[in-house]
Amino acid sequence: MDFLRPSSLTEALAVKAERPDAVPIAGGTDVMVELNFDHRRPGALLDLNRVTELAEWTETDGEIRLGASVPYVRVIAELGEVLPALAMASRTVGSPQIRNRGTVGGNLGAASPAGDTHPVLLVLGAEIEAASVRGTRRIPAEEFYLGVKRHALEPDELITAVYLPAEAGPQQFAKVGTRNAMVIAVCSFAVALHLGTREVRAAVGSAAPTPRRATAAEEFLSAELPWSTKASITDSVKRRFGELVSEASSPIDDVRGSADYRKHALSVLARRTLTWAWNDFQKGERECA
């Protein structure tokens, strides 16, 4: 196995064009696990740790450009105020050591249905920047996930950044695992209230072949929420929202949980996170879960 170490983004893209079989690696928290268990044996690894252009984030005109190699620990520390749901999801990733190395770009590259950041990227309307020697394009998160561990990148493309709105409204993320830390999600859920358009976005993770939005639940809740009065949400609305979120999933039985349990847990997460997000809206501030 070749080990390729470009020192700039230009060089990295040239190497990827020449060696499309090279697997990108930054934190290595997914790739190294697969190598250790001999689940894959690529012809080359493309080490991106010396490509400093990928390790920065910027804010321009209300939009965050998050470099693909920015680790979770920096998302939590530096972006928790403007991207609270992404920070919440980042806090649930593995151990402190994993959060020091793991990145949102790596989570996208692995494209696991259980990836913790995926539901958040869907509800915030994120776009993934893919670059190659042929140019750069932005892929909406909804179009990025194609199947279990399959994504929309071309063989010569690298994930270089993720674009997210910096002024999103109340947002929440929660997941169920066999314990509170260092676990793969049994299921996960994110919700965002987009106040300008009075639109709700909701998405499930680890409960279908790909992370996905719960569009029927979104449409129901967008119409039912008392946006103008900020009155409390009735229990019947919360319950129906949870039912529609559960119906949007198509989980399987596996070692982490049964399909029935996942569906039940998603309905609970939906009601719970909706309550937290609406409370934030009523108080005019955000609180972390």
Task: Sum this structure up briefly.
36% of the residues lie in helices and 24% in strands. By secondary structure, the protein is of the alpha+beta class.
- Helix content bin: 25-40%
Number of strands: 14
Based on the structure, what is the oligomeric state of the protein chains? Answer: single chain
Mean pLDDT: 94
Taken in chain order, the helices and strands follow as EHEHEEEHHHHHEEHEEEEEEEHHH
Largest sheet: 5 strands, antiparallel
Protein structure class? alpha+beta
**Alpha carbon gap, first and last residue:** 43 Å
Rg, alpha carbons: 19 Å
Number of discrete helical segments: 11
What order do the strands of the largest sheet run in, or round the barrel if closed?
Answer: 4-5-10-6-7
Shape: globular
User: Unreliable stretches, pLDDT < 50, 5 or more residues?
Assistant: none
Instruction: Give the DSSP E fraction (strand runs of 2 or more residues).
Output: 15-25%
Structural features, described:
By secondary structure, this protein is of the alpha+beta class. The protein has 11 helices and 14 strands. The protein has a 5-stranded antiparallel sheet. Strand 2, helix 2 and strand 3 (44-47) form a beta-alpha-beta unit. The longest helix is centred in the last third of the chain and has 25 residues, at 259-283. It is globular, with a radius of gyration of 19 Å. The protein starts with a strand and ends in a 6-residue tail after the last helix. The relative contact order is 0.12.
